[in-house]
Design a protein that fits this description.
Length: about 775
């Protein structure tokens, strides 16, 4: 039944096509009905909208639309019809008339037209079979469209999955070198190359260590291993206890043993006096007798000097060991200098090693003090109760060698990692990638299988659709003839033109346009071309087995530049032919034709109707700033037969606010408003200038000049053309609106107040 046939419900969105920058009706508030009228000035995107309808009829984007075009219709069954996946769910039921239709079907210079096929009366017995083929084709088309949507949905779901998983890999593996090049294109090859169902997942510690490795921009530089301590240290240390416990000899006189701190001073003094052959003591002045000298020499012989020199030598060795220990301490690098994977281990070992070195350094400092004291007092024996023992060095060396071995093992692995850093980073990335792919494996398996099934189903339904189309076309070829189409078109054309001076004659390729004398019909007038094209379109309503009551007719301005009489006849013919159509959409820029259609659609007892207008706004001088939207027709156009009320509202609001979103329209709107007003307020004046001069209205000093400039510049403007910027600047146009409104108010205040009430605008701001 016709009620079940799908029709257009709303234009959900339209963008990327000239003035159709960003139209949106997401909630479907502006719905199409059975009869639809769309009114818009030239340049507001009317033809572009008709091309969107035609793209659906033809199943691909019309050549006249840019590649950036994006639109979406909502159908009466709730489904969406988008330019992203164009299809024609209406089949032959959708017929679009516009300039592109005319250019496709007529070659005016050659006087030929494409054929229109009608079912042959001789093959009427095939009609039932043909109808069944049509139904089968439509069912196959629906199945194919559904399969296309399903395949598109499955493909998108899989593509979204690939994008999501690739993004997850990049986020978990922060590496400019490896992860940034890992995008959605890598997902499928990865799954095809490896079975991830058995890949073990990383624990959090394993994931963290690999992330730390990848986060390192480059490997930390190699480090030197810690050298061993001198092998003589332990033996030297033990010898010091022997030295410290010894004295130069027991033969020292008792008086010297009592004053041991002075022994070194006495030894040096004796040596000085002998060397300088002094006979008197420099300290006390007494005579140094030979006997006294022999006594001193017996106490301070070579054993004494050797002992002191040995103590000094051991003290120097202690300093050397201290310096070696200091270099060892400073040579231990910070744990942070290790590779990230060794940081935790290094932080545990490095402090122990440095503490160990520092600990023995303290012991060496104590030993140095003891040796210093021994050098000053060779005969003294120190107290070792402070913790020093002859085995301290042996114990320390054993602990140091163990810690040094652990540390050097870490350093060795650190240097090895430096040498293999790139390969280790790559392995770390691969581990994280495999971890993610293993986690997502189940979803991959489901989605990839769904896409494969959807693709197979699309191929199957496509083959069935091809078979159904071929069967339908074969039956159509048997049944149709274009001779009947010529007869029907000639009848319509004669009725339209009122004469038979132009007709169509069948030829092998289609139709030949001829005049009454049989000569090719060349040099046709615009009116004749419009009549031929529109009748050609209407003749297709019942061609190819179509039923008028099932049709969706979209008609874009069938009147062209026809005169009033031809316009009326075109309307009458269109009204009669589209009366029973399932849905009709009429687009026009002509106010007179629009009023005819509007009255026909809205008369009592008619089918449901929707009246729209194309609202093209622009608040700046930039022509690229124009933006068209499909909106319900304003009451000021819907309820009145002229555009006067609509123009009055536009000009009045602009004069009050000092701005307008209809910059393109404003200068012409102001001129047209004044011409219509003065035509009735000053019927005896032939021009606006005369009406202005004879009105007796006193305006501000510059207002008359503003109006005269407006009329002069826009004298050839039309309300139907908005394809170029107005000659007036924005400031001049706004100044003219204020002057125009002030003139109307002073010329006829009663009229002005009535218009304010009609436009729902307060009389005064």
């Amino acid at each position: 039944m016709t009620e079940e046939l799908v029709v257009f419900r709303s234009l959900k969105s339209f963008s990327g096509a000239g003035v159709w920058q960003d139209h949106r009706d997401a909630k479907g508030e502006h719905q199409f009905a059975v009869k639809n009228l769309i009114y818009g000035f030239n340049g507001t995107g009317k033809t572009t909208l008709s091309r969107a309808f035609a793209s659906i009829q033809r199943g691909y984007l019309e050549d006249g639309l840019p590649s950036t075009t994006s639109f979406e219709f909502t159908l009466s069954d709730g489904t969406a019809l988008s330019s992203k996946s164009l299809s024609n769910p209406f089949g032959q039921r959708l017929l679009v008339f516009n300039q592109d239709f005319i250019e496709r079907n007529f070659k005016w210079d050659d006087s030929v037209a494409e054929p229109i096929f009608y079912l042959s009366e001789q093959s009427i017995d095939k009609k039932a079979e043909y109808d069944a083929a049509i139904s089968a084709f439509q069912a196959a088309q629906a199945d194919s469209d559904a399969a296309k949507l399903a395949e598109g949905g499955a493909t998108k779901s899989l593509a979204d999955f690939k994008t999501r998983v690739a993004k997850r890999v990049r986020e978990l593996a922060p590496s400019q070198r490896y992860s940034q090049s890992f995008d959605a294109r890598k997902i499928e090859p990865s799954y095809l190359a490896k079975d991830y169902s058995a890949v073990p997942l990383l624990n959090q510690q394993g994931l963290n260590s690999r992330q730390a490795l990848l986060a390192s921009g480059e490997a930390n530089p190699p480090l030197s291993e810690l050298p061993a301590i001198s092998p003589d240290l332990a033996g030297w240390w033990s010898r010091q206890f022997v030295l410290l416990s010894s004295t130069p000899g027991s033969q020292l006189a008792e008086e010297f043993q009592i004053h041991s701190p002075a022994l070194t001073w006495v030894s040096e003094g004796l040596h000085y006096h002998d060397q300088n052959r002094l006979t008197n003591c420099l300290l006390c002045g007494n005579l140094l007798t030979d006997e006294r000298k022999r006594f001193l020499a017996q106490n301070f012989d070579s054993r004494w000097s050797d002992f002191v020199k040995n103590a000094q030598t051991e003290r120097a060795q202690c300093s050397a060991y201290t310096e070696q220990l200091r270099e060892l301490f400073q040579g231990v690098p910070k744990a942070i200098e290790l590779q990230a994977s060794l940081l935790a281990e290094g932080e545990g070992t490095q402090p122990k090693l440095k503490d160990n070195i520092a600990e023995f350094g303290k012991l060496l400092n104590q030993m140095a003090k003891l040796l210093d004291a021994k050098g000053l007092e060779p005969a003294s024996v120190p107290d070792f109760s402070g913790g020093l023992s002859s085995s301290s060095a042996t114990e320390w060396v054993a602990k140091f060698d163990r810690l040094r071995g652990e540390w050097n093992d870490i350093i060795s692995r650190h240097n090895h990692e430096h040498a293999e850093f790139s390969s280790r980073q790559e392995r770390a990335f691969q581990d994280i990638r495999d971890h993610v792919l293993a986690e997502e494996h189940a979803d991959w398996k489901t989605l990839s299988a769904g896409t494969t099934d959807a693709s197979k189903n699309l191929v199957t339904t496509g083959r069935k659709l091809l078979d159904a189309r071929q069967k339908r076309d074969a039956l159509s070829d048997v049944m149709r003839t274009h001779g009947a189409g010529a007869d029907k078109l000639n009848k319509l054309l004669k009725s339209y033109l009122g004469h038979g001076g132009i007709s169509l004659r069948t030829s092998n390729e289609g139709y030949q346009l001829i005049r009454s004398g049989g000569t090719p019909a060349t040099q046709l007038s615009e009116g004749e071309k419009a009549a031929l094209a529109f009748c050609f379109y209407l003749t297709q309503f019942e061609a190819e087995g179509r039923k008028k009551k099932e049709l969706i007719a979209v008609i874009d301005d069938p009147i062209s530049s026809l005169d009033t009489s031809a316009r009326t006849h075109a309307f009458s013919l269109m009204s009669r032919m589209t009366k029973d159509c399932r849905q009709a959409v009429v687009l026009t820029h002509n106010m007179s034709f629009m009023n005819m259609v509007k009255r026909e659609f809205t008369k009592n007892g008619g089918p449901a109707q929707s009246l729209f207008q194309l609202e093209c706004t622009c608040q700046m001088d930039d022509p690229d700033n124009r933006a068209t939207r499909l909106r319900p027709m304003t009451n000021l156009i819907k309820d009145y037969d002229t555009e006067y009320h609509y123009l009055f509202e536009i000009v009045l609001k602009a004069s009050r606010t000092g701005a307008s979103e209809f910059h393109y329209l404003l200068p012409n709107a102001t001129r047209k408003l004044l011409e219509m007003f003065t035509a009735f307020s000053a019927p005896d004046q032939k021009s606006f200038a005369g009406a202005l001069g004879s009105s007796g209205v006193q305006l501000k000093e510059n207002d008359p000049k503003a109006l005269e400039r407006l009329i002069q510049i826009e004298s050839h403007g039309t309300m139907e053309g908005l394809s170029s910027l107005p000659a007036l600047t924005v400031e001049e146009a706004l100044r003219a609106t204020k002057a125009a409104i002030e003139f109307i108010k002073r010329r006829d205040d009663k009229h002005f107040k009535a218009m304010c009430r009609v436009c729902l605008v307060p009389e005064e701001t």
